[in-house]
Prior knowledge:
The complex is a heterodimer.
Chain A: E1 2-3, H1 5-30, H2 34-59, H3 64-90
Helix pairs in contact in A: 1-2, 2-3
Chain B: E1 2-3, H1 7-32, H2 36-62, H3 65-96
Helix pairs in contact in B: 1-2, 2-3
Amino acid sequence: MVINLENVIDWFILPLLVIAVVIVFIRLVKGPELPDRVVSLDLMTSIGIGIIATYAMATGEQVLIDVAIILALISFLGTVAFAYYIERRAS
Amino acid sequence: MEIDLTLRDGITLALMAVGVLFTLVAAIGVLRMPDLYLRMSASTKAATMGVGFIMLAVAVRFNDLTITTRALAIIVFVYLTAPVAAHMIGRAGYILGVTLYNKTVLDDLRGHYITKRGTHELESVDVILDKESIPLE
């Protein structure tokens, strides 16, 4: 067992992030109202950005950082679109 | 048990650990908070800090100008857009009529959105003559 950056990411950092995703997924299933689900989806994509960046650090693939940028953009657009349609539906 | 960490790896791991802790706090807050608005308060702030620290770790790990620029761009973008998205979702939830936590003591927007007339314009305080008579939802 060698303690280097890749092993620590594989055995500690990524499992903790996956646990965070599972916890948020419970709220996504339970969430009593639609905005609760939108909030948890938004948080899941934020954690997804973290997972992608962490995986890029573990493997040394620099290209994956671009994927994180795109995911941040899409997450913001999706949340704004959800908010717009919830507001329209409420009126 | 053999330790093979350079100083840069150590700094990377420390930044990543802080980011992951913030992210876990955000996730637990979203699960445990009693109210949509409190959940948003937990998720927006803590997840923003989490992504920021993980991106700083990326910048330290790769030690490359282009990657550092991208990481800083993600940090700036997330710091700019997360409050906007949270504000829009909170406003939509308030207009939709999501109930507040039953121990809420202050609702400054109470009665200001006249949703029964079908408008979402924020009325001025003068229009609201008897604000205290409107029950806290």
